[in-house]
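Archive maintenance. Older records in this collection stored only the sequence; we are now back-filling the structure field for every entry so that each record is complete. The fields below show one back-filled record exactly as it appears after the update. Entries are processed alphabetically, and 3-dehydroquinate synthase is next in the queue.

ARCHIVE ENTRY
Title: 3-dehydroquinate synthase
Organism field: Flavobacterium capsici
Length field: 355
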Amino acid sequence: MQSIKANDYSIHFLQNSYQYLNEQIEKVNYSTIFILVDSNTNEYCLPYFLPYLETTKPIEIIEIEAGEEQKNIETCVEIWKILTELGGDRKSLIINLGGGVITDIGGFVASTFKRGIDFINIPTSLLAMVDASVGGKNGVDLGSLKNQIGVINVPKMVLIDTEYLANLPQNEMRSGLAEMLKHGLIYDKNYWEKFIDLSKIDLADLDQLIHRSVEIKNEIVSQDLTENGIRKSLNFGHTLGHAIESYFLENPEKKTLLHGEAIAVGMILESYISYRKNLISETDLEHIKKTLLNYFEKVNFEEKDIQPILDLLIHDKKNEYGKVQFCLLNSIGKTIYNQEADNELINKAFQYYNT
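Back-filled structure field:
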């Protein structure tokens, strides 16, 4: 499968990708190789990965607990301390072997340790493959507020090997599917239509769908790395989706939502806002809602939930001059960004979702 050229790095696919990793290690002559894993990828992914790593350089494994709640500055401090204690220097390499939490934290730690060392992302979840590990965004949450602290800094390379998905739970697969569906909605109508009936898709098709999803994100990011223009289209579903995810994360009465589950809700809500602004037809709106609810269980919102979610919108990273900024659909496959929506319209979007 053909590699994809990104901003100053490449994204390689399947088992052949490891040759690029080994060539990079030999070329740069790293002093130490650190592999960042969580408790799940240490058990299920590291034994698969290590035989592909051809080097005589010292290798150190750094493990953190699994879960979004680990994605904070305290975890980074512990990793920085371990790197220091194990003799990490400017010529060290960090390999991030895991899902979006690992690639986000690992990229941020590497970008700030000794003012920046090399890192390589090997995503092991579908979400990380098609979203988190591509595009140069690295960072952590601030309490329950998503991705408030971070940097934009690209890895030396990304290796995408779908063999890691063999042990991924079904709900985690669906979480990644949400970002793939988003890529179709914002950029490629033909790609969106491939997901209408997943029962016809086999594993070989999945590899091609992942490749196209990464290609779409990379085509957008390559035009606008620092998110001043078209990259904002990737935020479709995320303005409300992130607020919903944060609210459910911090509320002990609520079942925590995976990222993709919250984004799926956000895409329906923001599709409704798009419809009310005469950007998409009612037929398109109903089609989007039906397709997303085919894959994602409906989330129950009570009236008391809405205002706290609206309050969280003010913390969204995309806000400018105190105003909440939405990316909306301008037909299936196209977007329009820097759009505003008042609380009355957002409330009506929740009413639409609940009916």
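Update note: The first strand starts at residue 4 and ends at 5. The chain has two domains: 4-168, 171-354.
Entry marked complete.
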